[in-house]
Amino acid sequence: MSEAVLEVTGLCRTFGTVRAVDDVSFTLAAGGSLGIVGESGSGKTTTARIIVGLEQADEGRVTVQGRARGGRVRGRAERLARAREVQMVFQDPYLSLDPRTSVEAVLRETLRLHFPGTDHGARIRELLDQVGLGTRAAEALPRQLSGGQRQRVAIARALAVQPAVLVLDEAVAALDVSVQAQVLNLLADIREQTGVGYLFITHDLGVVRCVTDEVIVMRHGAVVESGPTDRVLDSPQHAYTRLLLESVPRPGWDPDRIAAARRAL
Amino acid sequence: MSVALTRRPGLGRLKAARGPLHLACLGIVVLVVIAALLASWIAPQDPNAVDLGNALAGPSPDHLLGVDAAGRDTLSRLLLGARTSLLGPLGVVVFSTVAGVVIGLAAGWRGGWLDSVLSRSTELVFAFPGMLLAILIVSVYGEGLLAPVIALAIAYLPYVSRLTRSLVLAERSRPYVSAYQVQGHSTLQICLRHVLPNIAPIVLAQSTINFGYALMDLAGLSFLGLGVPALTPDWGRMVFDGQTAIQHGYPLSAILPCVLIVLTVVAFNVVGERWADRVARRTP
Amino acid sequence: MNALDIRGLRLRLPGTARPVLDGVDLAVGPGETVALVGESGSGKSLTSRSALGLLPPGATAEGSVLVDGEDVLTMGPDRLRALRTGRAAMVFQDPRAAINPLRRVGDFLTEGVRFGGRTGAADAERRAVELLDAVGLGKELLHRYPGQLSGGMLQRVMIAAALMGDPVLLLADEPTTALDVTSQAEVIALLGRLRERFGTGLLFVTHDLGLAAAISDRVCVMYAGRIVESGPAGALFERPRHPYTAALLASTPRLDSRNGRLAAIDGQPPDLRQELTGCAFAARCRYATELCREQTPEPQGEHAVACHHPLEGSPLDV
User: Fold this and answer.
1) 10 Å Cβ neighbour count for B136?
2) Distance between CA atoms of A101 and A139, rounded to whole angstroms?
3) DSSP three-state, residue C261
4) Among the listed residues C130, C180, C174, the one whose alpha carbon sits nearest the alpha carbon of residue C153
């Protein structure tokens, strides 16, 4: 049993009167892949942002590799150390890259910040190769790249830091189906090669089935069900999980029954 | 969502890159700048050489554009006047842009109480008409170019800072800023190295338009007799000095500087707006 | 008469080497639901917009687009306006972007039919209340602003607005992509009920093959501006004939797939700036032959497939 690389305990965050995150707890095993499933307003994005450090929790603890993360960052060393723990790939490939910076410059910036004095050129080539981008992409600006290519650059940028945990916030939701498949395969390969842990935030149960080992289901800020992916998707315990599963369109689907079930919940 | 400058479509074709208006204005800007730079070498006469016996004469081979009420050569005064007439607005624009960007960046980036304090202060300056502020300061500090330049720069500052602030607010909400924060860059680094270069083209294009307005304001001050000292050739000053010339029926020494002021202001405005258009369209 | 009849539509944009729509044939019968499936760049959104005459600036079109028997491409601006506020209506992907946030919902619903004085204010309001009820919303929404409604409710308002003019043809461009799965189910249920009640033909554009198969009578799959396969929904989903359809199904992560790698399609769709001879999918197809690269396949057979080597028999586990 591999030990946990990420441990979240009793996370709470309230915006005004709304409890966006309500006592959320889970663990991510080293090299594992955990999916967080929910609809809009479920709190999954806020939870991800708290883990990554873009927001502060009101209560609760986040621990990565045994070290607690929380509170304001004090000083450069701590800021860099936190970045080495958790990195993030964002949903929108078009806005998550600086439009004026070329691909190579993006990676070089990261390497210069975290690993000054090492051979950046070689490492950049290695990273581009790892995400399946050729050397020609190195000089390209974001506007010259497709959505899938930009997401690969975002993944390379996150991997350049060599994090323990990679948070993917709907990272493939904005991509075409065929491009999404390529990127999901790439992510599976990277996890095998580097042993990084994935936190997959998504609303798509098909993606959850394919890429995660464990899953938690969130609704209105709270965790309603959690467990191994196969078990949760094959025999869901909670009514909301069942509703989510039935809402996935397939032949022989009865949307009226689902609409009624949703109102009943 | 990027902040885009909205432009009126009406004169679009006239103002297009290859359009005659834009090329002509670009030409005027270039000519005026060259004249200002090379004035001392190409001016045919000493602009301050007084020749009262020849006062208010029309154009002659010696004085291609005539002389003014004190017998000074108009052409030479126009050429040297270009210097002060351009230097003043340049000072206004540089100072207001630098200070405005700093204030707008601080207000937009940090938000909170700093934003409130800075925004309310700049709004106070907005309420004060620029020219009146300049006249007030000149009356306190006396003649000279520095006082009105500083005064106008302060009056123009809110325009730049308000624009910068809204651009910074828009950029700050973009995911790439969050991405850099997660990567471990300090917020100051992100602000200077990524946000500032992205908003700079829009702010600079706006400043070019401000140049024209500053020119007009400074010329107006000189016309009122405030601003540059009496002997310095300056277009606004020349209009003031030329009032008597007009009354005597020799308008050339007063009208020519007026024409030049108008042409230069329009030219800078058109070129500046054209640049702003191009930048706005390029913004993704 | 068919609600929509597109014949041989060819659309060319300035500055491109091949037409962005290359000979599209599509029909939507009265009361029928047809799904148009494709990825970005396939031309599916352009096809649905052409039914309203919403062509991109500078585009040149060949062929005919008949809505309720009249050709949209040759209509004058008055007839087009009458068409757009009457016989054909569109529901867009993002309801918040498609509605004016500064005006009340009631104004938004009634302005289309009141345009040109065709319907009086009282009649228009009565119809608006009737339609709000049909989509499951109360009449108090007439006085609310769009910002006060959730995404799902707003999309239902958009559907009500689309039905105000009693259209024969309803076009929906990814109407549920921006919604949660559970809201999606409600909106789809609604569309089905309305179709039965009002008999409107529906052209449903989506990238989700599963959704298309679940709600439509017929599915058309588009790739690079051409319809590569069309047929009854169930049959297409279980036994795809075109290699692209099969590859698309295989690369979609599904609830019933195994954990592990997906069968991704290599490469990318052809660039608009490059000439294209033969089949558009040939460069990425594992069954491609010389014939495929030279000759453009035309749709053949009962279950129209545009392929020289259509897949036969049982579903392939690609």
Assistant:
1) 13
2) 9
3) coil
4) C180
What part of A 99-138 touches B (C-beta under 8 Å)? 99-101, 109-110, 113-114
Nearest CB partner across the interface for A181, out of C184, C189, C251: C251
Contact call for residues A96 and B175 (beta carbons, < 8 A)? yes
- Which pTM value belongs to this model? 0.83
Neighbours of A76 (CB within 10 A): 11
Is residue A197 a contact partner of residue A28, using CB atoms and an 8 Å limit?
A: yes
For residue B180, list chain A residues with Cβ-Cβ distance below 8 A. Answer: 98
A210 and C180 within 8 Å at the Cβ level: the answer is no
Query: What b-and-e string marks burial along C229-241, b requiring 16 or more CB atoms within 10 Å of the CB?
Result: bbbebeebbebbb
**pLDDT tens digits for range A108-162:** 999 999 999 888 989 999 999 999 898 888 888 888 888 889 999 999 999 999 9
HEC string for chain A: CCCEEEEEEEEEEEECCEEEEEEEEEEEECCCEEEEECCCCCCHHHHHHHHHCCCCCCEEEEEECCEEECCCCCCHHHHHHHHHHEEEECCCCCCCCCCCCCHHHHHHHHHHHHCCCCCHHHHHHHHHHHCCCCHHHHHCCHHHCCHHHHHHHHHHHHHHCCCCEEEEECCCCCCCHHHHHHHHHHHHHHHHHHCCEEEEEECCHHHHHHHCCEEEEEECCEEEEEEEHHHHHHCCCCHHHHHHHHCCCCCCCCHHHHHHHHHHC
Q: Does C26 touch chain A (CB under 8 A)?
A: no
∠ CA C24-C30-C36, rounded to 5° = 35
- Which chain A residues have a beta carbon less than 8 Å from that of B190? none
Q: What is the 3-state secondary structure (H, E, C) of C189-250?
A: HHHHHHHHHHCCEEEEEECCHHHHHHHCCEEEEEECCEEEEEEEHHHHHHCCCCHHHHHHHH
Please tell me the distance from the alpha carbon of residue C57 to that of residue A162, in angstroms, as a whole number.
Answer: 47
pLDDT tier at C313, thresholds 50, 70, 90: low
Nearest by Cα to C259 from A32, A53, A104: A32
d(CA C301, CA C296): 16
A70 Cβ neighbours under 8 A, 6+ residues apart: A56, A57, A61, A62
User: What is the average per-residue pLDDT within C92-98?
Assistant: 89
Q: Strand C218-223 relative to strand C226-232: parallel, antiparallel, unpaired?
A: antiparallel
Residue C269's identity, in one-letter code, is P
Contacts of C196 in chain A (CB under 8 A): none
**Cα dist from B124 to A97, B99, B127, B131, whole Å:** 38, 16, 5, 15
HSE-CB for C97 with a 13 A CA cutoff: 7
Give the mean pLDDT of C18-32.
90
Sheet holding A18-29, edge to edge: A18-29, A4-15, A59-64, A67-69
Residue A87 touches chain B, beta carbons under 8 Å:
yes
Residues B182, B174: Cα–Cα separation, whole Å: 13
The pairing of beta strand A222-228 with beta strand C21-28: unpaired
CB pairs < 8 Å spanning A and B: 57
In this predicted structure, what is the pLDDT of residue B66? 76
